[in-house]
Design brief:
Order of helices and strands: HHHHHHH
Largest sheet: none
Strand content: under 5%
CATH architecture of the largest domain: Orthogonal Bundle
CATH class of the largest domain: Mainly Alpha
CATH topology of the largest domain: 434 Repressor (Amino-terminal Domain)
Radius of gyration: 18 Å
Number of helices: 7
Shape: globular
Number of strands: 0
């Protein structure tokens, strides 16, 4: 592999490992949660192999992290203290309900950040 690709794979693997450790998961637990073999998880974390997009999605979903936080070194991983609560709230939603809730949250967030008029 080219040096640049190898370096990138090692960085992605290190970010996956960091996210896993942040959640206090073993490689075995991540393997089980993602449906990926333990040896393959180890190879990915060490940057020794390329992974396909399906594998990448399985890992990010199992870790409940954004793809950006794994792919890009300039995106800090922000801990979400309400991760469990949001997960429980959204787990049983239909895709349509999720879309409505997402739009509602975006609107609320935008309104919260608008400067208040003193009139």
């Amino acid at each position: 592999m080219e040096d640049a690709i190898l370096t990138e794979l090692k960085q992605i693997g290190a970010r996956i490992r960091a996210a896993r450790l942040d959640q206090k998961l073993s490689q075995q637990e991540l393997a089980e949660a993602s449906g990926i073999s333990l040896p393959h998880i180890s190879e990915i974390e060490l940057g020794k192999c390329k992974m396909n997009i399906i594998t990448f999605r399985q890992i990010t979903e199992a870790l409940q992290v954004s793809a950006d936080s794994i792919l890009r070194s300039d995106v800090p991983e922000v801990k979400n203290i309400y991760k469990k609560e949001f997960s429980e709230l959204f787990d049983d939603c239909t895709p349509q309900e999720l879309e409505v809730l997402l739009n509602l949250l975006k609107t609320v967030k935008a309104n919260m950040r608008k400067p208040q008029d003193d009139q």
